Each structure stands twice: as structure tokens, then as C-alpha cells.
Amino acid sequence: MKILLLEDDKNLHASLKAFFELEGFDIASAYDSDDVYDLTYENSYDLYIFDVNVPGDNGFEVLKSLKASSDTTPTIYITALTDISSVGEGFAAGGDDYIKKPFDPEELVIRIKSRYMRDDTIHYKDLSYNPLTRELLKSGKTVGLADVLANIFHELLMQKNKIVPTSNLYDFLQHPNPNALRVNLSKLKSKLDLDIKNIRGVGYMLEEL
């Protein structure tokens, strides 16, 4: 599991990194907001662990910026801020969990393993898809999809054998119109061998035959 750790206290950072690596996690280090922006521009991660009071943009602002860029990576905040307004701000920014300092690193590992390392993989034909990390494999090999295709695929697969209204799929298009949607669906069908059925005048359905 690849984790990006944002913590500016170098001693705490080093101890957390060492502890996590003993547990088998792959840790990337960030000490300020610029580090996060640089690392996430070039890499993808399974989980973010963010302190709040860090140099540059604070942890809340960092996550808001990432979310605005369609980053769906789950995030745990570790912070000394204990007031309810800060907790609320953390969740409002898109955080998934919030742990108050000081804490036992083992507790954090337990949370990670119980909440973020479950096998939620969905299988369809020769495809394997993890909706949490959005990792897609075809015959065991990673498949990369552009954002529009990835979002349409996610929506169809999560509603497999159910009709997804056309309006829902339009939300993923920069210029929503029937032709643009058909082109993208055709690309998905060709690339992934999907059985997508057009329910005329209603929407589309990914069938599992």
C-alpha cells in the first residue's frame, strides 16, 4: 500500500515512517504543501495521511486543492487540533478519518488495515476493479483510462445490471451531448470488451451476461 505522509515535525515523521515501513507500507514523505503538490503530480497513492498545521497551505487546503483536481484518494488527518470546528472542517475538506495527537501509531495502522485494505475488488469478465483506489486490471495487467472514460466506467460498473440515467453520464462530459456520450461509450466497449446496453430514452446499463 502506497501512502503519502505529510508531517512537518521531522522526528515524528521519521518515527511514523519507520513504523509504517515495518508494517509493510510504502511511504512517501512530504514536509509541506509544495512537497504534496509535487509528489501527487507525478505519482498516485492509495492513502494520504496529512497533518494540518504545516508550512504553506495547511492540510485542509491541500486536500481541497487535490479534490478540486478530481483526486479521490482517501485521507486521514493526524493533528493536535481537537476543537469540534476543526474536526468538522477536516471532514468538509474531504477527509475520511481524523485522529488526534498524541496517538499510538499502532492504532493508526489498525484503522488503515481495517478500513482501507479490505478486498473490495469487483470482477467483470477478465477485469478486476478496486473502486476505492480505482485500480483497473485486465487479465492481470494495469489499464489506464482517461478521466472521462474512468468516471463513466466507474458509474456503470458500480450500477452493474442497473440502468444508469443518461443525465448521470452527462455529468462526466465537458460538452454533454448524445454523440459525445456514444463516442466515449464506444471507446470503453472497444478497450475493455464491455456489454453496454442502450435503454432507449432512459440510459445505459452494463450487463453481466
Condensed summary:
The protein has 2 domains: 2-116, 3-Layer(aba) Sandwich (Rossmann fold); 122-206, Winged helix-like DNA-binding domain superfamily/Winged helix DNA-binding domain (Arc Repressor Mutant, subunit A, Orthogonal Bundle), CATH 1.10.10.
Provide a descriptive summary of the structure in words:
The chain has 209 residues and is of the alpha/beta class. It folds into two domains: 2-116, Response regulator (Rossmann fold); 122-206, Winged helix-like DNA-binding domain superfamily/Winged helix DNA-binding domain (Arc Repressor Mutant, subunit A, Orthogonal Bundle), CATH 1.10.10. Helix content is 41%, strand content 22%. It has helices at residues 10-22, 33-42, 59-68, 84-92, 105-116, 147-158, 166-170, 178-192; strands spanning 2-6, 26-30, 47-50, 75-79, 97-100, 122-124, 127-130, 135-138, 141-142, 164-165, 196-199, 203-206. It has a five-stranded parallel β-sheet, sandwiched between helices. It has a four-stranded antiparallel β-sheet with strand order 6-7-8-9, with no helix packed on it. Helix 6 (147-158) crosses helix 8. The chain is elongated and about 60 Å long.
